[in-house]
Every structure is written in C-alpha cells, then in structure tokens.
C-alpha cells in the first residue's frame, strides 16, 4: 500500500467546533472587508472621485478576503481543529498583507490612481 488511507476509527471534528473556529476567523476576515468597503465608499464619495483603476484596486481589496476565506475553509475544514485554525490563520495573514499593500499603494500613488 503506497497511499495513506483513513481508518474508519478516525474521528472528525464536531460540527460545532468547525462553526466556532470558522466563525471566529470569519469575524476577522469581515473586519478587513469592512475596512476595504469603507475606504471604497469614502474615496468614491470624496471630492476627487475614483477612476477605473481605483475601482478595480479597491474592489479587489474587498473581494480578496472573501476568496481567501473560502479557499482556506475548503482546504481545512476536514482537518483537525488545530490544523484548520492554522489554515484559516494563513489565509487571514495573506488577506492582511494584501490589505496593507493596498493601503501603501493608495498612500503613495493615491493622487494619480484615486483622484
């Protein structure tokens, strides 16, 4: 046998545990989305407005954490609780790095891109 097979005695995480872990991390992902939408609204209603590249950048900042959460959940929900939390934490870290990159770009190139 070269492939590793699951034994029938292996137990999965209870549903409540998966929901609790995903819910806790989901709130953190939602915070990033909330900030991205807030920046998008404030820039769109500001005196300078947003051009097409600004819309693309700020919409991607709002969508990326949702995609990262979906991928991390799909990859990790069948794993043990600690591994599942680490996979979600990795996705959260990627989302945070992307958000900080958007903020840095908006701070340095904001006059050309967003205005």
UniProtKB/TrEMBL annotation:
The chain crosses the membrane at residues 16-34, 54-77, 84-107. The lineage of its organism: Bacteria, Bacillati, Actinomycetota, Actinomycetes, Micrococcales. Keywords: Membrane, Transmembrane, Transmembrane helix. It comes from Microbacterium hatanonis. This is Bacitracin resistance protein.
